[in-house]
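In the current project phase, the collection of sequences with tokenised folds has grown. A sample record is quoted in full directly below:
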Amino acid sequence: MTLIRPFAGLRPVDDRAADVIAPPYDVLNSAEARIRAQDRPWSFLHVSRAEIDLPDGTSPYDPLVYETAAANLAGMETRGILRRDPRPCYYVYQLVMGEHRQTGLVAVASVSDYESNRIRRHEFTRPDKEDDRVRQIEALNAQTGPVLLACPSQPAVDGLLEGITHAQPEVDLVADDGIGHRFWVVSDDDMIERITGAFDAMEALYIADGHHRSAAASRVAANRVGQGADSSAAYFLTVIFPHTQMKILDYNRVVRDLNGMSPETFLAGLVGDFNISPVDGACHPGGPGEFGMYLAGQWYRLTIHADRIPADPVARLDVSLLADRLLAPLLGISDPRRDQRIDFVGGIRGLDELERRVDSGEMQVAFSMYPTRMEDLMAVADAGEVMPPKSTWFEPKLADGLVSHVLD
């Protein structure tokens, strides 16, 4: 078994990609999905969020949702909207967001290598979310949501993928959120062999986003052990980007109260661990160890004292430093995953959103973060450790529906 291999993708026919592709299933709630799919009968949201075709209030985990998803996927294939490639291929997928561009490989990756930690993870998973993805895969007999992976950037491999993009793409469109999606099919046997060998020589791949989909694929493979180690279920759908091309945005924090303190007392409590400087305008941290803070209408720059930064790959992360040196000891938030007093704001919303939520009185203080670096994520995964919750916000997002992996 190789680390990755080509597959016969199920994908939109030439002129239907714009009608089909949709945001990932987990970035929209049911109400938002209903709106996005309105007047779009072939939107992949009818597969990934099939509760939108059932009465309002239907639970996304209702068995009828999975049945509806399967019927909708089959209907798209029967009506000629989707078609499966006649032979296994690789696919090159390029995402464009403003001036940012990233070029990756769509392939199926080995479940066995996931289980042996050659495909490395950095998050815990929740059983209920795993169960949902298992039911979805089993109902559809397909993996439709790709797992976002990173590979260590290598000029030869990066150049190999980039060279494929010099040809005319099969798909070249801009979605309604302004993100460009370009897609090439790689069917040449020699090129397939070169790509397979180049990736198989890599020591490891890293899950960036999609831990629940990966875990679900592993469970489905275990349920189908009679099919053999080389069955289609022994591999799962991925898009692999060089780590240097991936874009992580800040994942900011807002807190509902100051744990009984006045702003002045709270500021005084920061002095032991941080240098504090008022700044004019919104504060974007300039590097690791810096934080912006919006409190009582004023922005501050917080810089943690160097001797407070440990060597441990998890404890030295900015999200850990903020949690261990400020949120827990001063604000009493010891479990950010469950504490209702804290919320998280993706950097795509900008720092204006932090100001708005504090100025409205909904929250009392906000913290802008320096984005987690891919090198830090990989170091945590290499150490077998787990990232704190809400550490990374990847943009741009992969599209659902561009290609799916059918399980034979």
Summary: The mean pLDDT is 95.
